[in-house]
Amino acid sequence: MKLNIDGLLVYFPYDYIYPEQYMYMLELKKSLDAKGHCALEMPSGTGKTISLLSLIVAYMKANPLEVTKLIYCSRTVPELEKVVAELKNLMDYYEQQLGKGKPKILGLALSSRKNLCINPEVSQERDGKNVDALCHKLTASFVRANHKRDATVPVCSFYESYDAHGKEMPLPEGVYGLDELQEYGRKKGFCPYFLARHAITHANIVVYSYYYLLDPKIAEVVSKELSKNAVVVFDEAHNIDNVCIESMSIKITRRTLDKCQQNIDGLSKQIQRLKDCDAERLKTEYQKLVQGLRDANIARETDVILANPVLPDDVLKEAVPGNIRTAEHFLGFMKRFLEYMKIRLRVQHVVSESPPSFLKDCYQKVCIERKPLRFCAERLNSMMRTLELVEIHDFSALSLLCHFATLVSTYAKGFVLIIEPFDDRTPTISNPILHFSCMDASIAIKPVFDRFQTVVITSGTLSPLEMYPRILDFRPVTMATFTMTLARTCICPMVVSKGNDQVAMTSKYETREDVAVIRNYGNLLVEFCSIVPDGIVCFFTSYIYMESTVAAWYEQGILDQVQKHKLLFIETQDAAETSLALLNYQKACENGRGAVLLSVARGKVSEGIDFDHHFGRAVIMFGIPYVYTQSKILKARLEYLRDQYQIRENDFLTFDAMRHAAQCVGRALRGKTDYGIMVFADKRFARADKRSKIPRWIQEYLKDGLCNLSVDEAVQVSKRFLRQMAQPFSREDQLGLSLLTVEQLDQEDTKKKLQSRMQYV
Amino acid sequence: EAIQEDEKGSLQASVDDIISKAKKRKLLEKIKNVRLGMMRHLFLIIDMSEAMSDQDLKPTRLLSTLKLLEYFVEEYFDQNPISQLGIIITKNKRAEKVSELGGNPRRHITTLQSLADKVCHGEPSLQNSLELAHQTLRHMPGHASREVLVVMGSLTTCDPDNIISTISMLRDGNVRCSVIGLAAEVCVCKKLCKETHGSYSVILDECHFKDLLTQHVTPPPATASTESSLIRMGFPHHQLSADKEERPSMCMCHLDSKNSQGFSSTGYFCPQCKSKYCELPIECKACGLTLVSAPHLARSYHHLFPLDQFREIPTAQVGSNVLCFSCQTAVQELNVYICDNCERIYCLDCDLFIHETLHSCPGCASSRQTQQSAKMAGFS
């Protein structure tokens, strides 16, 4: 259907549109017009992706000079594939409507070598890191130079032919998913990975993972040269601050340092050898370093590349300091720094300090100044190139240390150094860890906000919206949250606050060991097992809590009762074990035996896996998933947030807990034909501060009457709900209510109704 | 507003609305001159697992179910006189055939009544019971419609093997499986019904349960793979004896029974081979002839030639103070229904009653002229 979105002609590849999709597009257009950023919350399963794509493609078609590129960032490979499929659908619709006149669009997905490689030997590797290493072994420039001299040195034929012909031959327009890229690569004999990496500079639509834009180490390689007039979309962005923080944080253990020692020894041997046979090369490198990083500086000033937070602007203006210019001196320098680090790790109690005090201490103890430290990362890279090292992967420990050195000397604020002599859980075993932790999510994402004209942050659960601009430090043009228009109430959220014996249910630390509380939780599970068909997913607040509760249930005989109705599966920290459990869980749901999956909020299951339709008829949230508050890193971050952004500790903790709870319960509902029960089993959920932080589309159906239920009452409500939902429900029932045609959209009163479905923040 | 709330703030209304719309749509779907599977062979599978002792239907799910099924069995034979029925129960992961396929409603009702005393325990096994039904249905003639109706209270099924293969076996065997769930929608049941072209429904309360059962009384359209054949039928009269000497003899239906049941001098005698039966309709065990009585066949007539749908028009169009022709009360609803043949006006309730139960329009039947023209329209 063709839509008129505020004067813009939008081609929408379906005959009907959800009201909230229409509103979503209106809001999106506003921020595109204003060239500003926005944060939008819309429930999953209401067609966020297609709304985004159709509006932005239409916008690009109408204003080809203002928006030239769409960068769509998602989290996992299946999600990438979904976006590509929707894009294909949209382009097919354009072709069908306009024939030859359809916009010339090149869209492609980019993923790691592991998912794209077609070299028969390399692609057999399972582990992503190994694939990268093998690929580098075959494609590094000096390997290829050696190959020219000596034909027995193996190279990758796909890369060779891509390098010879592929660069001049741009990808023909169209939409390329990962499979299509591989197919195209096979047909032409080109390497799909490098082809895609090259193509993203001129592609109109790029779909890839967050890390390609947020992780400075990867962004440096992949996304440096993307056009400024681009729209960046972060989908499923409810966790974006954690991604930012992770990408800037570094963890150094004693093993890392031992490996660094080996790395340095290895490097010095290499240098010695090189000195003996080819001293010229080291000399050229030295010359280059004197020249400084001026080239990079020029590039950044003329605004061609994306800024790298690890390599701040003022570093670029200077030349590499003299004391680390020659290779031996640099290694000697690193050795000294390494020794210092080893001393620091030899602590008996927890140390927490700021980067400046660390630098001062470092200067006093081993006379290392701040300036050369800042150049470590650059200097190491340069040396690796000069030495023509093949096994870059082996030197990851040393490059980690160099990164750390650069970061610690660059940022005085927003970071904290925490050295723990042992793990909290095993206080007797000495296992020193140095956490260099980023506390400010805005550092990693700042270059993105600065560079691109529109950044869209969107997810199904982004409540409370006002928190995100604060922690990411940006000013949005528009922030809005949309609810689902439903022809029938297909979600049934409820807060179960007490057991049948009236004992309050809560995972509060003081009472979580209480037998009565655990038994009530068990009763809740047993009762729900007997009335909910197929799959039930339960979330605990942590692995430890889950273990102790399940052990208690076993003793109380609750597990036996559960197994009368359903099979029981448990998520563990082992990924392989968990995916096996998931597979069998799905099988049990398929063939009618029914199953319960016990898992953990913030675990793998709670984030990436959908439990649509019969895979999750009910989600039970046992307790509020607060993050482990005793952690030093978290405490430091909370303090920082309070001082810098005036966010109170409690506000942030509740925000974080509630977004994870919303993520967990949101797993059950993935579309309008789906239905599910969402049980919040903790009396604290009913309090206003928690309840108001639940996404609006769930809150809307969480009536007061459903906020303080006992187990029995919850069972009655659920029984009735399940019977009603089982009644036949067809597409016609949705028409006019939650599905609209063009004509219905144009009517005035519909527009008024639509306004009420949305709320600005 | 997408969802309307009633004064109490309940959302029940929107669901009710959807249900009544669905009901009306179902009536509209009924088209005439469609080949129907008139000779039905139906297995009732009754869940007797622990879940059936739940008291959300009064007094218990099982008792309530059995009572409604008694009504269903009577209704079934009333509307499908040349069909047969059998009963299977499942509990404790096993399935048991409590009543063989047969055409005698009284026998089935007695069986149903005896089930009320049994205890419900364990889990049901959908697969085992379906396999058991299939074993018998497999041998039924190709022109017969093979059906299974499951009444399932449990939300789980405990099967020895992969049920998916059983489902495809039933599909290949042309067995139509329908399920009525008593609690909630179970994925595997939905799949079973979809694959085998049956219908899946879940009850809201006793009343709705009865409605759903009634839907299974009317014969379903025949599937394309059902053979079509002319069937030789015998119409035996009830006789005191085949020959003049009044000698008592065993009837064929009770040959195996140990007691003296079926030993009498009266019965129905097959016109072809003179075997004796005590009930109709039945297939002659000796020569395979289908034995029915003429009234049986006549009662199936309305399935093949259903009454035409009435035209729906707004009440305001007809004028104020409209009386329904059949119940003679003033019409309150927004729409009235008009028979195209006799142009009489009916209210919604009467319209449903006429189409669901009466199968003939009282307006047309009240004058000879319209009666004739209606009949002609039916045959054309």
UniProtKB/TrEMBL annotation, chain B:
It comes from the Eukaryota. Residues 41-182 form the VWFA domain. Belongs to the GTF2H2 family. The keyword Hydrolase does not apply. GO terms for biological process: DNA-templated transcription; nucleotide-excision repair; regulation of transcription by RNA polymerase II. PANTHER family: GENERAL TRANSCRIPTION FACTOR IIH SUBUNIT 2, GENERAL TRANSCRIPTION FACTOR IIH SUBUNIT 2-RELATED. A zinc finger (C4-type) spans 270-287. This is General transcription factor IIH subunit. Keywords: DNA damage, DNA repair, Metal-binding, Nucleus, Transcription, Transcription regulation, Zinc, Zinc-finger. InterPro entries: C1-like_sf (IPR046349), Ssl1-like (IPR007198), TFIIH_C1-like_dom (IPR004595), TFIIH_SSL1/p44 (IPR012170), VWF_A (IPR002035), vWFA_dom_sf (IPR036465), Znf_C2H2_type (IPR013087), Znf_RING/FYVE/PHD (IPR013083). Pfam families: C1_4, Ssl1.
